[in-house]
Amino acid sequence: MATMIDGESYLGRVLVQPLDEAGDITIYLWPVRCLKSKMGGPTFGIDVNGVEAIRYDPHGPRGHWHRGGYDKLGAGGSHVEFPDDVRDIEGQISWGLDQIKENGADMLAEAGFADAAKSLDLEKVGAASAAIKERLAEDPNLIGKAIEQGLINA
Question: What distance in Å separates the CA atoms of residue 147 and residue 145, rounded to the nearest whole number?
Fold first, then answer.
């Protein structure tokens, strides 16, 4: 799973699920990640043997995602904006999970994980997507709590 950064705050129960039979490919979810810049929201991503390949930061109007190997290229080198018509958190979550289902193997190969791309199990991707949505539904007011605590600006 991606490394939590000192100075950031994380609310909610972390989720990690395998995306292949061996458990070498995993998806993680931080239900609310509060950045030092006072923006935040859910963050989820895919790791291959502990190396983060893909990350989604559905943080609403300032949301974005990372492709090509997050750990390899860094945040700036892998940064991609969500499509213009995907501006709300819920839409960004759904769009990101759909991208993993539809293009996950290609994105893993692009990030330098060709063997993992071949092992990605779409049934496990579907189960993980459902688990992420369920985990986020456990406490739908986590972002509100982060705002109340001054961790995120409204």
Answer: 5
DSSP assignment letter at 6? T
In DSSP notation, 54-104 reads: EEEE--GGG-EEE-S-HHHHHHHHHEEEPPTT--SHHHHHHHHHHHHHHHH
Helices (H) and strands (E) in the chain, counts: 5, 7
Cα 5 to chain center, whole Å? 15
2-21 exposure pattern, b = at least 16 Cβ within 10 A, e = fewer:
beeeeeebbbbeebebebbe
Which residue is associated with the tokens 């893993």?
108
| Segment 51-79, tens digit of pLDDT | 999 999 999 988 999 999 999 998 899 99
Structure tokens at 49: 């043997």
95 by Cβ neighbours in 10 Å (0-12 / 13-18 / 19+) ranks as middle
Q: Which residue, 59, 49, 101, is CA-closest to 79? A: 59
